[in-house]
Amino acid sequence: MRFIPGLLLSAALLTAAPLAFAEERTAFELQAREIYQTVVEIRSAKGQGNIPVVVDYIVRELKAGGFADADIEVTDFEIEGELVQGLMVWYRAEGTPKQKPIVLLAHMDVVDALPDTWTRYPFELIEENGYFFGRGTADNKYGVTSLVATFLRLKAEGFKPDRDLVMILSGDEETGMISTRAQAKYTDEKIKPAYVLNADAGGLTLDENGKALLYGVQGAEKTYATFELTVSNPGGHSSTPRVDNAIYELADALKKIEAYKFPVMHSPLTLASFKSAGAQTPGPLGEAMLAFAKNPADEAAIAALRANPETVGSTGTTCIATMLRGGHAENALPQRATATINCRIFPGVGIAATEQTLKEVVGNDGVAFKLISDLVESPESNLPDEVMAAIAKALAARGLEGLPILPHMSSGGTDGLFYRNLGYDTLGIDGSGAKPNDTFAHGLNERLSVDSFYGGLDHWYIVLKDLAGAE
User: Fold this and answer.
1) DSSP string, 304-322
2) This prediction's pTM
3) pLDDT score recorded for residue 9
C-alpha cells in the first residue's frame, strides 16, 4: 500500500466520513464486524505461515453463505519455504452474461508488527475512542472484509448479476507479489474482464473536523523499486582500526542520498488532482496545491508540497533508506555494511534511470548496487463512465451527493499495477475515508475509525448492484 497526493489518501490508509448511523447494527453489519475481527486477529504477515488460515476462514464463510465449491479456487504458492495462497471467488451470472466480468481486488497479507512497540496488542481488534485498532485494520483487512461481506450480503438477498463478479484476494501484496502475478496472468488468460476495481486504494478525503471534502479514485501508481547498497571491506581487529571503514563509507553514501532531491515532475492527472484537492484543502497546503497546479515551476509551492509527507510523493520520484545492517562482532571491524533504499518512481522515469541517478549521487564505485525488487512500471488507467456513475450513486446514498470525484496517482504500489500492465483499466474505489495522518498503515498503532468501518460497507454493495445489472 501507498500514499497519494494531498489529502487524497489511499483507502488502505483511510478512515471514513462521520455520518449518522444508528447504534443498533443490522445483521449484515454485525456479520461484517465478525469477519473483520477474525481476519485482523490472524497474523498474516510474511514468515508467520497464516495466509492459509485466512483463506480457510473466508472459504468456510462463503460456503456457509451459499457459494459452491465450483465458485471458489484456492491456489498454493511456496515462497521462500512458506506456503502462501491466493483466493479467487466467482459470483456468477445466470445463463449467458450480458457484459464482460468485473474483477475485484484486495490482499490478505499485512506488514508485520512488533507487539512490544505498540500501545495495544496489534493482532487483537480493539475498539477504543471511536477507532478500531490493529494491524491491517486499514491495510487491507478492511478491503477484504468489505468484499467478502458484500458477496455474502448479495447472495443472501438472492441478487442475480447480469455479469460475473470475480473477487481476487492475493496473499503477498506487501512482499514479492508472487500470488498477485499469477492471479493477474490467470485473469488475462481466462477471465478477460471489462475492468478491475481495487479495494486497496481510493476513498474519501476528510478535513480535520471529519467533513468529507472529495472522493479519490486511484487511476495510476508509482513504480516500486528496492535497492540494496553494500560496501565491503577486509575488516580486522577493532583495536587496530583501518583508515577505511565499511560502515562509515556506507553512511557517507546514505547522507548524499538523503540530501538529493529528484527533479519535480507532473502529469495531467497529478495537476488535476492538486487543483481539485487544493480547492477543498484549507490553509497554506491548499494554497500550495493550487499554485502548483497553475504553475508546476512555482518554487514556494514545490517547497510546501515537498515538506508534507502526504504530497511529496506526487511531485516526483522519492528514494528513502528503510533498513540497515553491518558488521558481525562488537570487537571486529565491519567486513560488510548494507542499506536498503526503497524508491517510488514517477511514471515515465523507469527503474534503470533511477538506479543510475543514485549511483551518480553517491559517486563511489565501492558502493555496490543490487535491485532486489521485481516490479514493473504501470500506465495510467481510463475511468469508465459507468464506474464513475456508480461511485456517485454510492456517495449520494451516504448523504454525499455532489461530492467531487477526482482521479489521482498513488505514491505507493498495489496489486493493481500488474492488471494495468496487462491492459486493463484498474481503479481504486474503496468506501472508507480519513483525516490527514490518521491511519498509521505499515506503522505503529494502525487504526480505522468505527464510523468509517460501518459507513463504507454499503459502498461496494451499491456499486456492484449498479454495475452488475440491478434494477
Assistant:
1) HHHTSTTTGGGGS-EEEEE
2) 0.80
3) 31
